[in-house]
Amino acid sequence: MVQRSGDDPPPPRPKSGRPRLSARDWADAALAAMREGGLAAVAVEPLAARLGTTKGSFYWHFTGRDALIEAALERWAETETETPIADLEEETGSDPELRLRRLFAEAVRSAAEDPLEVALLATADDPRVAAVLERVTERRIAYVARQFELAGFPGPEARRRGLLAYSVYLGHTQLGHAVPASLPGGAELDHYLDRALDLLLMR
Q1: pTM for this structure?
Q2: Is the pLDDT of residue 16 over 70?
Q3: Which PROSITE patterns did the record assign (predicted)?
């Protein structure tokens, strides 16, 4: 848990003139470390060096490493699930099939470029990671299932297709990092993803 409340005054500006770091800055740095080395890479002193600050800045915002990890995982859930969903809703209007196609294509491409999700899946035995993964997974599947329902599929069938679509996404993500040569690229990837959605939307 973050140590300070939002009503507390900000920490004094460092004498060096560097801008003050926020809890979000630390959480983002922790996520960057996870991308490179998994959960084990989150350590206060190396992160302070990465951010060009001291441990004092860290302890202004957090009670310890566990609190930072929890904040970083919440940040991941926000930036990789809630924000994309909100953006998608704004960009695609009331067309659920367009939302599904846009979501599928953007999620697959983003996951192929970012190793963080694979790193988190690899540490799913950690209770902190497991709890966030479970919540995020259910949120994503429920959202995708809702789009299938809006596209005209009955609730139980929409749920099955949502789960299948998410399974395809996860499988593609794992393959993209483990054996990238096995997957199409460029225009062929666009065709591949469109065809996958054609099959998922088939009645």
Answers
A1: 0.86
A2: no
A3: HTH_TETR_2
